[in-house]
Amino acid sequence: MRKFVGALAISALAAAAWASPAAAAEVKIGYSIAKTGLFAPAAPSQINAYNLWAEQVNARGGLDIGGKERRKVTLIQYDDQSNPGNAVKIYEKLITQDKVDLLLSPWGTPHHFAIASVLERHKFPMIGSTASSVQLRNMKPGNIWFTTAAVADKLATAMVGLLQSAGVKSVAVLTNQLPFGQENKKFLMPALKAAGIKVLVDADYPPNIKDMTAILVKVKAANPDGVIGLAYPGDSILYINKAREVGIAAKFQYLLVGPAIGFFRGMFKGAADGIVTLGHWSPHGDNARSKAFYAAYKKKFKQEPDYLDSVEAWVSVEILEQAVAKAGLDKDKLRQAISTGTFDTIIGKVRFDGVQNAVTPTGFLQIQKGELHVVWPKDRQTAPLAPKTGWK
Amino acid sequence: MRLLTTREAVPLLLVAAIAAVLPLLGSDYYLGVGFILFGWIALAQSWTVVSGLAGYISLGHVVFAGIGGYVLVLTWGAVPVWAGALLGALAAGLFALLVGLPVLRVRGPYFVILTFGLAEFAKYVVINIENALGRFGRLILGGPPLETLYWAMAALALAGTLAVVAIRRLRLGAGLVAIREDELAADTIGVPTVRFKLFAFALSALLPGFVGALFVLRTGYFEPAQAFDPVISFTIVTMAIVGGSADARGPVFGALFLVALSELLWSNFPQVYMIVLGALLVGFVLFAPNGVAGLFERRRAAAAAPAGG
Predict the structure, then answer these.
(1) Is residue A27 located within the same domain as residue A140?
(2) Å from B129 to nearest chain A CA?
(3) ipTM for the assembly
(4) Which residues 188-227 on chain A approach chain B with CB closer than 8 angstroms?
(5) A387 in a domain, yes or no?
């Protein structure tokens, strides 16, 4: 059987090679991502989603270009080494030297932020994914959009709602000094104050922090109802390890980015149960696209998708594909199509208002018995919020 | 005295020729590479003034570029772009004057460590200021076009090269070299060492301030950890060592060599690039301590030597 499949693949390849002189050139799609460095743990979630998409598009006969033709896609990927400055150079190179037809987004807010002015300079539209920035939104750029509902100001409101519903009266706020964490904190602190939730510990720490013990000992002493960790993947892992060791007993424990990645739950087993994180997607809903994505991802990579980053990356390519089908590859028409269109995605309909997703409500996920569930907003719940009970 | 000796004319003509040729290739990509190349030349020439001539090895030269970039984003929209860049350069020069007096009192490895520490210190001060202001990176949309920045940077590279050529001809240059060879002796024979060192330090900060401002305009993005990235300081030193640092040729050769290497390698093999860089550095220090310029010199000396001599 395997031999037969192999032979079939070879003949398919041969046929493709035979057909290729007549077929149009491939659509070149470029991006950079943090394959090494501080953000490397997060990158596979996104790379997998891109690769899966490219494979599916090519299996469908190629990308639909303005309803006129179908062309195969080829991805051009560079490693930005977690350095936003490198991402700037790479996107410049992708546009001016590699002359790509389309761009996909890098991982993370700092990188999206850094390349925004390259996109503006070259008037090259790119749909963002794993990022959001109120600061960038306020500058009203025209060539970048954020698929996520996780924008700092909306998140602050949603978080206060979640805390109140859980009866949390006091919190510790631990913040990574990277832009996304800091911007979240900027909106969260006044919202907490307005809601009368006391902040017992307020600590910032550097992005490459190696030991959190001192901060967590302080948190334990203050004994708040909730811990809000505005963390990135690396420090989320650090938090679980140390909080378990120190014995943080808060009934509500939140980590901004990290727990939605597949390996996170595998890594900590029961200890991660009860952790709340950012996210507004789950495969448990009744969205058909969503189910197909989940199944295909799991089949290809033998693991679950990252409920946050794989999902945002996937949504960004879904939107790109639909916009290109409508407008073709012309940059001006494409920009117009993205900014005015409504798109079918695995998180439901998406439409942009400026840079921001105007439809999807901000939500939170919780790890329950090793599965991720949407716990907020209430009307999209796949399970109610449960208190964190120890570290097992 | 001749108008220009060969070793003075070569770097000047090389910079001018590259500046004239690159735009003819008609691609933004090559203009971008040229922009980076001239940036490095200007930085390395500036570094040569204080570290090559006076022998005070600075491992924190990025601090001046960082200050220049920061002043530019702070003044963005408030003053014209060129004025912002100029203010950046002046701020960097002023900073060098202020810290120069205490810092230049120490020598050798202590000076190296101190300059490195100072740059890191400045970086964290700016990070904390930015966090306190609630600004997490700053964007500049609608900066000058690439061609403008290219010519501005080419002018800075030429200015830096010219400055090193000129300083070597002046009493200042002779004084700085005397300081490098034996500071105590220089002081004894009447070289105003403190004044010369301080002046050289401030001078070597001006151009980097300008370069830093142009870097920010080019990327359209300022973030302190990027703008004050110590790797920039290390790269300057590497270029000087690879090029051979005692006159204006070294920085030009070194920058050309490393920029060419990095364009070939970094985008596709970023890790390999760092390995090759490390190996080169070790190789040059061990086998060609006078760099590319030294290699040329040696060949010429060998050719000129009488047979059997």
Answers:
(1) yes
(2) 12
(3) 0.78
(4) 204
(5) no
